[in-house]
């Protein structure tokens, strides 16, 4: 059982398929027979946790002040299928209570994918969301590994699937839009390049007799080609999923001319995810991870939000010895002002997007006033260091 | 802190068959530097090249018994050179090159061979450093677990995976393997290629030719050096000058926090260094001199240095020569199988002879110190001892 | 209603070589204080964008967006009773040298080429790239051959080098490399003047190359459109294209300028799958310009996306795909993506191992490098794109690999790169050979050996 939510919509709806694979019995550290070529891959703690994080966002209340969830009046949430493989049995939080779901074996992924695709086909304006977190490998195409990868020594690639070709096939099957979020490595492995038959099937074969029919398609990949994706140690949400859910939770959106809502479409979502990964890197430097996207077609919004998108602001002042002598402030050109007075710390605050005067004042009037006038705070994040040169 | 590396003979065309300088630098940084209290990044490595001024052979060593068959059998690109190195390494090693069988007999030795085969192809110093770090973890693991349970079930395709997995220590979780495994797999593939060579004796001939060529170059370099270490006008000869320049450059690199100068001299480089420290620049302070596979003692027995004095010491063989005053510490490393390496303790006082014995055959021992990862580890351990 | 005319005073950016002028066109948006879009349009040097808003707004913000993502915003107070306003964006403060101004909108927003506003404080040390070499390849008669690189003009300042070339109608590749610069190819548009600007890395993206290369052939609108596409900035591309009108216009003028026509076609294929031009437009472009690989690629893609109803259609498109590869590599990076898409769809199940065309495209895909809108890839020879990376002089290629994790730790911040260079210095080339190893032999190129005069060193460009 993998359908954890279903609400039949009278018109278009949004259908989610979310997969998290942390347990790989045939890879290093697994409890099954080790694959003949495990490709150096081992058990992952983050994917089940990241999957849950993503699903919680799906079900969170819309337009909430903090951590708002899925919201799209044009295509409300219609179904959620989830598969998870983790070391310990895991109950997923759903609107109907905690539920146990099937494991993410290749067969289960295939079945869930086919049901998801069938639902997507049911209306011309349906939106599909495909989320995967687990092991991945890039050859010329991007392959994703199911739980039972490596089970058969003779056909080691049987339990993986070719994600790139799946995308190419789906765009000929549906009239609506799809968003793919792939939180997996895209490392080019020597072992794979050398293994004959490294040629897993797609979840669907492309039917060349069909015309390209989708409206829009967005693929956001956790990392660039040949690069790794990361999660902090100890079973935490991965960097990419954290950035993705962060952007989706009200830290992204554009209001077009004539539109009543703030819309999140593939392009601005991809930009926001990238910015959040960069922003996080400012906070905790490490090996950089840069997401990548492929956006095609007309801009169809995944979310339609009523609340003005928020911006994570990080305002600092250098040199640091002057920081405690200043008041750091942001003043909206619409009205309203926030400030941090005489504290020796970075000023962190969440503000609605828009234009602000950003500056610093010395209440005693000794140090010079600093001002960046009419700065545009664009979601998801804004970082500025004011420089004081007395 | 600067380390100056003074090469020995063999650093001519074909040198790449015996040693990979990038790999050497990587291991010096990651394995040796920390034992000297240095961060790998802070280490300044200077490698003067004096081979240009060494012996020239008018007939291109046509006098060697085995011309023709040899190095060129491996072709000329970087990977072919790496394969040549590994073939030489394997031919002189006591291991078979079947990594699983080797590991079941002697796990630490197999780990060493695997990393040596991987390091033989390092084409970037950072690559070599990454390998060196992984080597330290794996070597430690292999010593502590000489018979790990997984080894009995391991397959050739997953031996390296399991070794790295067992030896690794934390860090961020990543949804992929990381590059080090690919390096090890390349090493395995080089070993696999080398095994038939070992059987067919091509590699043995190769190594023999290499040893012959080494000996010949060695003799040539020694003659050239002795004849030309001073120019006719009494100024420093070109080889001396190249090495001296590097030493002065290293002196410049000393800083208040890091004021130590370490010199590693391989083979004939040791004789050059001894001549410099005893005659050309006796005031040059060297905090640690490490001679590796060197013949300093033999040349002193023959009284071939500029500072040599047949009257000194007055009472051989009991007496010893004094260590050059500016040399604080002197370590002389040799492999007992290395026919070109000599002890030094009987000749110079205040020197520690340090035997590095790997069981590799005489054919490969002389050139092989710097291509074996354990050499750096043992050297580092020795340096760390007060 | 209030009307705001947004003018572009980009004199230096419009300047091409003698007799050539480009008309850079950029999207502009009118925003309210919350950043909501009130109106949008495209402004060029010739034609202002005219944006309208209702009378309720008291203040608006006019934002200009460059392909690099950099924006420039001006605030405008609206007064009651006053209907017409004008806003001007000027490039007078943009670049230190007029000749490099054109490239700035395509480079990192923080590029040191910017006279003002660069937050990076880099010592670019251009001299360290003096030994970086360039070679020019032309695709003619089915093979890539080296051509002498003889620029019409060259330029150099503290941050960049620039070359002006005149190229005839063919597929062209510029190749560059050096002892620390990975060998790579960048497609140059044939059939007219081309200008290439080279500048040291300006970003900390782990994939960024040591030298960044940007190309223009002075096709302002078409190129800007593709620069936006290359960055997946579809909204800006759409604003620019004015709901496909510009793209159609570029496409329709194909006889005058086929390179702009393929740019228009790429946009239409990417952004407006539902409103594509008739198949025969693509077919004409493909038939008229046999030298242009992109013309075959867009036609092949268009056919595949139409759906192949029967066996003859499938045969025809397979043949067309083969032809795409017989014309050399595409001018634009978008063409590489479409080649990959087409190859994957056409290879059929179970046949991929035997399909050499498929293998070539996949090799190209795996070897892809970034040069904005231009196609770019790594490798030693144009015929063999390769994910393996090479460095060194043309006669002495060496394998290169750099682990991103170490790229940052190897040189501690504040330490000049030259120190590291010194410590990692390899031995100089050996003297007379003691063995029979022939190093020059490996350097031989698969097809042609470079004549000495075909190597052009960056250091030879005078200030």
From TrEMBL, chain A:
Which Pfam families does the annotation name?
A: Peptidase_C14
The record places domain Peptidase C14 caspase at: 100-253
What is the official name of this protein in its record? Caspase family protein
Name its species.
Tahibacter harae
Q: What is the taxonomic lineage of the source species?
A: Bacteria, Pseudomonadati, Pseudomonadota, Gammaproteobacteria, Lysobacterales
Automatic annotation (TrEMBL), chain B:
Superkingdom as given in the UniProt entry: Bacteria
Q: Give the matching InterPro entries.
A: AB_hydrolase_fold
- Protein known as: DDHD family phospholipase
Q: Which organism is it from?
A: Tahibacter harae
TrEMBL record, chain C:
The source's domain of life comes to: Bacteria
Annotated region described as Disordered, given as residue ranges:
407-445
Record-given protein name: Uncharacterized protein
């Amino acid at each position: 059982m993998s359908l954890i939510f279903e609400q039949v919509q009278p018109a278009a709806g949004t259908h989610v398929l979310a997969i998290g694979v942390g347990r790989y019995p045939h890879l290093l550290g697994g409890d099954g027979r080790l694959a003949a070529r495990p490709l150096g891959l081992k058990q992952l703690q983050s994917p089940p946790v990241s999957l849950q994080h993503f699903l919680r966002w799906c079900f969170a209340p819309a337009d909430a002040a903090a951590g708002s969830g899925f919201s799209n009046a044009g295509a409300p949430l219609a179904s959620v299928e989830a598969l998870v493989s983790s070391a310990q049995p895991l109950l997923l939080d759903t609107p109907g209570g905690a539920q146990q779901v099937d494991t993410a074996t290749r067969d289960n992924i295939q079945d869930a994918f086919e049901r998801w695709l069938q639902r997507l086909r049911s209306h011309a304006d349906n939106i599909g969301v495909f989320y995967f977190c687990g092991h991945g490998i890039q050859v010329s195409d991007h392959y994703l590994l199911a739980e039972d990868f490596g089970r058969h020594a003779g056909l080691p690639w049987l339990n993986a699937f070719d994600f790139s070709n799946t995308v190419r096939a789906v765009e000929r099957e549906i009239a609506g839009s799809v968003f793919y979020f792939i939180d997996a490595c895209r490392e080019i492995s020597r072992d794979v390049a050398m293994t004959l038959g490294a040629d897993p099937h797609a979840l669907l074969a492309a039917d060349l007799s069909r015309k390209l029919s989708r409206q829009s398609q967005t693929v956001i990949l956790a990392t660039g080609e040949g690069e790794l994706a990361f999660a902090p140690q100890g079973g935490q949400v991965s960097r990419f999923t954290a950035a993705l859910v962060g952007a989706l939770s009200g830290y992204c959106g554009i209001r077009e001319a004539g539109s009543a809502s703030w819309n999140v479409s593939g392009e601005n979502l991809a930009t926001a995810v990238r910015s959040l990964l960069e922003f996080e890197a400012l906070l905790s430097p490490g090996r950089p991870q840069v997401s990548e996207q492929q956006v095609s077609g007309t801009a169809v919004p995944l979310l339609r939000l009523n609340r003005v998108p928020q911006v994570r602001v990080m305002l600092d002042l250098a040199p640091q010895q002057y920081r405690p002598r200043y008041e750091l402030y942001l003043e909206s050109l619409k009205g309203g002002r926030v400030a941090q007075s005489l504290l020796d710390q970075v000023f962190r605050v969440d503000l609605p997007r828009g234009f602000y005067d950003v500056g610093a004042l010395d209440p005693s009037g000794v140090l010079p006033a600093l001002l960046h006038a009419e700065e545009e705070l664009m979601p998801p994040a804004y970082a500025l260091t004011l420089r004081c040169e007395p | 802190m600067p380390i100056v590396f003074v090469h020995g003979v063999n650093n001519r065309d074909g040198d790449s068959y015996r040693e990979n300088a990038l790999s050497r630098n990587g291991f010096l940084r990651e394995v040796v530097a920390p034992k000297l209290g240095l961060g790998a990044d802070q280490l300044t490595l200077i490698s003067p090249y004096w081979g240009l001024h060494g012996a020239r052979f008018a007939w291109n060593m046509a006098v060697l018994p085995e011309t023709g068959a040899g190095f060129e059998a491996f072709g000329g690109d970087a990977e072919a050179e790496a394969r040549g190195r590994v073939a030489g390494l394997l031919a002189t090693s006591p291991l078979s090159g079947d990594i699983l069988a080797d590991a079941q007999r002697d796990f630490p030795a197999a780990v060493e061979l695997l990393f040596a085969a991987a390091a033989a192809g390092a084409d970037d110093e950072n690559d070599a450093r990454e390998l060196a770090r992984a080597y330290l973890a794996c070597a430690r693991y292999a010593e502590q677990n000489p018979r790990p349970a997984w080894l009995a079930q391991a397959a050739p395709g997953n031996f390296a995976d399991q070794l790295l997995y067992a030896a690794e220590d934390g860090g961020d979780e990543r949804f992929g393997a990381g590059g080090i495994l690919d390096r090890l797999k390349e090493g395995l593939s080089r070993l696999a290629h080398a095994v038939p060579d070992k059987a067919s004796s091509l590699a043995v001939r190769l190594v023999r030719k290499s040893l012959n060529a080494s000996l010949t170059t060695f003799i040539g370099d020694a003659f050239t050096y002795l004849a030309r270490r001073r120019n006719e006008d009494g100024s420093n000869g070109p080889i001396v000058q190249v090495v001296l320049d590097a030493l002065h450059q290293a002196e410049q690199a000393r800083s208040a926090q890091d004021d130590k100068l370490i010199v590693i001299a391989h083979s004939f480089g040791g004789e050059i260094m001894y001549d410099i420290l005893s005659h050309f620049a006796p005031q040059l302070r060297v905090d640690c001199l490490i001679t590796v596979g060197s013949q300093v003692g033999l040349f002193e027995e023959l009284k071939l240095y500029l500072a040599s004095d047949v009257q000194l010491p007055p009472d051989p063989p009991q007496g010893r020569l004094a260590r050059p005053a500016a040399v604080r510490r002197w370590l002389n490393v040799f492999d007992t199988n290395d026919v070109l390496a000599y002890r030094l303790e009987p000749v110079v006082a205040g020197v520690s002879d340090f035997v590095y014995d790997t069981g590799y055959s005489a054919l490969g021992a002389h050139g092989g110190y710097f291509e074996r990862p354990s050499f750096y580890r043992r050297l580092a351990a020795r340096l760390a001892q007060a | 209603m209030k009307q705001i005319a947004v003018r572009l005073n980009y004199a230096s950016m419009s300047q091409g070589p003698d007799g050539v002028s480009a008309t850079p066109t950029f999207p502009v948006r009118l925003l309210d204080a919350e950043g909501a879009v009130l109106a949008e349009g495209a402004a060029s040097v010739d034609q202002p964008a005219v944006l309208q808003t209702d009378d309720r707004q008291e203040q608006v913000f006019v934002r200009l967006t460059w392909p690099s993502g950099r924006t420039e915003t001006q605030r405008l107070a609206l007064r009651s009773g006053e209907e017409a306003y004008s806003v001007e964006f000027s490039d007078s403060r943009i670049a230190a040298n007029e000749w490099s101004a054109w490239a700035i909108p395509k480079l990192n927003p923080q590029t040191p080429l910017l006279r003002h506003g660069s937050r990076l404080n880099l010592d670019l040390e251009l001299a360290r790239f003096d030994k970086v070499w360039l070679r020019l390849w032309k695709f003619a008669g089915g093979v890539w051959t080296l051509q002498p690189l003889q620029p019409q003009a060259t330029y150099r300042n503290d941050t960049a080098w620039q070359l002006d070339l005149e190229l005839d109608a063919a597929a062209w590749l510029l190749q560059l490399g050096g002892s620390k610069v990975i060998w790579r190819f960048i497609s140059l548009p044939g059939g007219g003047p081309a200008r290439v600007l080279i500048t040291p890395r300006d970003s900390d993206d782990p994939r960024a190359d040591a030298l960044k290369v940007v190309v223009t052939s002075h096709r302002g609108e078409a190129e800007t459109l593709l620069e936006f596409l290359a960055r997946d900035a579809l909204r800006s591309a759409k604003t620019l294209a004015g709901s496909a009108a510009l793209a159609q216009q570029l496409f329709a003028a194909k006889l005058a300028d086929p390179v702009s026509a393929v740019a228009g076609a790429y946009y239409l294929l990417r952004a407006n799958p539902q409103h594509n031009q008739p198949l025969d437009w693509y077919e004409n472009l493909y038939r008229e310009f046999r030298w242009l690989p992109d013309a075959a690629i867009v036609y092949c893609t268009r056919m595949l996306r139409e759906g192949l109803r029967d066996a003859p259609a499938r045969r025809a498109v397979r043949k067309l795909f083969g032809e795409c590869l017989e014309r050399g590599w595409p001018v634009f990076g978008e063409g590489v993506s479409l080649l990959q898409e087409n190859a994957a769809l056409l290879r059929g199940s179970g046949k991929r191992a035997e399909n050499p065309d498929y293998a070539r495209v996949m090799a190209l895909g795996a070897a892809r490098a970034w040069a904005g809108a231009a196609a770019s890839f790594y490798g030693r020879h144009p015929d063999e794109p390769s994910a393996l990376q090479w460095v060194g002089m043309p006669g002495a290629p060496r394998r290169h690999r750099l682990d991103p994790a170490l790229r940052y730790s190897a040189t501690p911040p504040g330490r000049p790169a030259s120190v590291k260079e010194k410590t990692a210095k390899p031995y100089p080339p050996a003297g007379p050979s003691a063995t029979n190893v022939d190093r020059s032999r490996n350097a031989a190129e698969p097809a042609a050996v470079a004549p000495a005069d075909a190597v052009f060193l960056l250091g030879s460009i005078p200030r």
